[in-house]
Amino acid sequence: MKPYVFISRKLPEDAIAMLKEKYTVEMWDKEDVPVPYDVLLQETRKADAILTMLSEPVNEEVLKAGEKLKIVANMAVGYDNVDVETAKRLGITVTNTPDVLNDSTADLTFALVLAAARRMVEAAEFVKEGNWKSWSPLLLAGQDVHHKTIGIVGMGNIGKTVAKRAAGFDMEILYHNRSRKPDAEQELGAQYVSFAELLKRSDFVVCLTPLTEETRDLFNRNAFRIMKDQAVFVNASRGPVVNENDLYEALKAGEIAAAGLDVFAEEPIGANHPLLELKNVVAMPHIGSASMETRYAMMKLCAENIDLILSEEQPKTPVN
Ligand code: GLV
Ligand code: GLV
């Protein structure tokens, strides 16, 4: 019997053709709706490999259900949705999709910096709603990005790729990270500073840190209070790194100027989410890596990792 691969979302046929040639492959048949938990559980019972999205909780129960399970190929660089410790204990490999998405995610992150600073979404809505009556000197005037200070929290490969873009805008680059990054310091002139100093000095605070128990609620009332009144906050990592109530209060009280958010504490958010009341919030539906090229590269990497594990070879991008 061929090994059984379950894919938790409908992916394009050409992206999984290689898997289909060699394995029995089943997919959850919807593109826009996550697989129900009980279906995930039931499919995992039969599976040698599962290819999952960040919307799936691959928890202890799921992992234990997978009696034959050898790999969880998570189609994201972040893997906070997977219980990696339990997987390790059960001898199940977990892979993610690093590097192939660095440039696309950095582009979107920097686009949020620009959009929030230059009020681009607000301005586009203004035109579409027919509010543009005349040119005027300070109409929708925002803040400059070039020659300002950017503070990157989480200087991994995406952080460094954002720093490269910032260097092109003649920005001063600060960063905070668990470990120092000498390459970013030498090549991009990035300066390592404490978290508090970064908050204090940055005009743009950009969050790219993974969600862990240490980073949950990292951006809270205290953090927003330390930031400049004119600061723009951008989050392109995971929602729960931010306390959204505190962010809302800080924006509303003018303790910071604007926010660009690609991620939220509980996704998806509806139109009644409090942050969406605020004109100075630019909200995106978690599309950091969402270019056609990059999403195909991520699917391909997941398929390769599965094929390697099922062929008893080393996966390309294991996390455990
Ligand atoms: C997206 O958020 C990812 O982790 O790839
Ligand atoms: C609450 O809204 C949180 O993000 O922690």
From TrEMBL:
Keywords: Oxidoreductase. The lineage of its organism: Bacteria, Bacillati, Bacillota, Bacilli, Bacillales. It comes from the Bacteria. GO terms for molecular function: glyoxylate reductase (NADPH) activity; hydroxypyruvate reductase [NAD(P)H] activity; NAD binding. Residues 5-320 form the D-isomer specific 2-hydroxyacid dehydrogenase catalytic domain. The keyword Flavoprotein does not apply. Signal peptide: none annotated. Belongs to the D-isomer specific 2-hydroxyacid dehydrogenase family. The keyword S-adenosyl-L-methionine does not apply. GO terms for cellular component: cytosol. This is 2-ketogluconate reductase. Residues 110-288 form the D-isomer specific 2-hydroxyacid dehydrogenase NAD-binding domain. InterPro entries: D-isomer_2-hydroxyacid_DH (IPR050223), D-isomer_2_OHA_DH_cat_dom (IPR006139), D-isomer_DH_CS1 (IPR029752), D-isomer_DH_NAD-bd (IPR006140), NAD(P)-bd_dom_sf (IPR036291). Gene3D superfamilies: NAD(P)-binding Rossmann-like Domain.
